[in-house]
Write a structure and sequence with these properties.
alpha/beta, nine-stranded mixed beta sheet, 41% helix, globular
Length: 415
């Protein structure tokens, strides 16, 4: 007998009468529905995975109604609510660093998960540093909405913006409403500035592990991971870059990423790095049109009436070859170009995160901050993250930057 009604008596199971008997015979519990993958449960009980997801979602909403205190809702302030996360996080406790905004947290599946290497990429002025500063304060919040830990900020470019950090702490409703003893402090943010790649390697290998243990660190931020690599492997080798230089850079990138991943996993903390972007140009003489969801490349090119075309007798073969090119494939892991709406930026060009495919393969999560053509419009898009469902193909969440940091307009997003 399933324990669904025991855990949440108010849960209406009549809408799931087609799968509940099979779940009972397979001894699937409420904890299983909240923590296990729906596909695995569906295979075990031999029921449709879509119905299992619907039941898990209904169960999660019912559990939230019990565990989300009314007082926390009241303290969140207008336009904000207590961040919600998945069933595994409810069972094990808060295991993500919140952005302090409900709309952004919802897109991120609760925030930046502990134990993983995450990246925030975007062009200059998109809000990367602003988001990183917010995370430095968010990690200090007391449980259950925070981890009550300190943070380390490693800068490879400009120094830590302490004045801006203090402004966010004093103006954000979720921080300013805390008691003086619980309010985040700049003294709990350790700042390190690294001028070159040699200093960066030494700090990551030797100094950072000691600082993590000594200061109860829950978040390490690198802003940005790109600067020292560009200075070492691009500017110095300009005019003579070749396979040997690229091989050395690739090996160094994998080594650095391995250190950061091990730190995140071994110390159960979040590692979030900023990455720069570059303009992306198609390799052919004409640009390729963006694909809309559910539409083949050949259909899109015929509808466009211009751009890339191929002779009719060989169209299917040419389409297949074109789809397998890097120009087309990178649309799905860069954050630009997977939909028509995401192809544009502030200057109308698509972008590509720096450091290439080698670095991309080292990441667990990539978040792209995009500036749209319309003045002042910014969007956050989850390019990939295993804990954020249905991240691919979304246009992203529109956000603004103010005295309190990053925030989304809930009413505007619901339009």
């Amino acid at each position: 007998m399933t324990d669904l009604l025991t855990v949440v008596p108010e849960l209406q199971l009549s809408a799931f009468s087609n799968i509940v008997p099979s779940l009972e015979r397979s001894s699937v519990t409420a904890t299983d529905l909240l923590t296990l993958d729906a596909v695995d449960i569906a295979k075990q009980a031999q029921v449709p995975a879509r119905d299992v997801r619907r039941l898990a979602s209904a169960l999660l909403d019912a559990v939230h109604a019990h565990v989300e205190p009314d007082q926390d809702r009241a303290n969140a302030g207008p336009g904000h609510s207590v961040p919600r996360t998945n069933g595994r996080l409810l069972a094990e406790g808060w295991t993500a660093v919140s952005t302090l905004d409900d709309g952004l947290d919802r897109a991120l599946g609760g925030g930046f998960s502990l134990g993983h290497l995450c990246e925030i990429t975007g062009e200059s002025g998109a809000g990367k540093t602003q988001l990183l500063l917010t995370l430095l304060l968010s990690i200090q919040r007391p449980p259950p909405c925070g981890l009550s830990k300190s943070a380390i900020y490693i800068s490879t470019e400009a120094a830590l913006q302490t004045a801006r950090l203090d402004q966010i702490a004093n103006n954000h409703p979720r921080l300013s409403s805390l008691s003086p003893d619980e309010r985040p402090s700049l003294s709990r943010v350790l700042s390190i500035q690294v001028p070159d790649i040699e200093s960066q390697d030494h700090i990551l290998r030797y100094q950072l592990p000691i600082a993590i243990k000594r200061h109860n660190i829950g978040l390490v931020v690198v802003d940005s991971i790109t600067a020292n690599f560009r200075a070492e492997f691009e500017r110095r080798d300009v005019g003579r870059a070749g396979p040997e230089t690229m091989a050395r850079r690739s090996a160094h990138l994998m080594e650095t990423a391995g250190i950061l991943r091990d730190l995140a996993r071994n110390h159960n903390m979040a590692v979030v790095v900023a990455n720069q972007v570059a303009d992306r140009f198609p390799s052919g003489s004409t640009s390729m049109p963006s694909l809309s969801q559910g539409q083949s490349f050949s259909q899109r090119s015929r509808d466009a009436g211009s751009g890339w075309e191929s002779p009719a007798p060989e169209e299917d073969e040419t389409d297949a070859q074109q789809v397998l090119t890097l120009d087309q494939q990178q649309r799905w892991f860069t954050g630009w170009g997977d939909t028509a709406a995401s192809s544009s930026s502030v200057d109308g060009r698509m972008k590509t995160p720096s450091l290439g495919l080698v670095w991309t393969n080292q990441l667990t999560c990539r978040v792209a901050l995009r500036r749209q053509r319309r003045a002042g419009e910014r969007r956050l898009k989850v390019v990939f993250a295993p804990w954020a469902r249905d991240a691919a193909g979304e246009q992203g969440v529109k956000f603004r930057i103010g005295e309190q940091g990053l925030w989304t307009d809930v009413k505007e997003e619901q339009k």
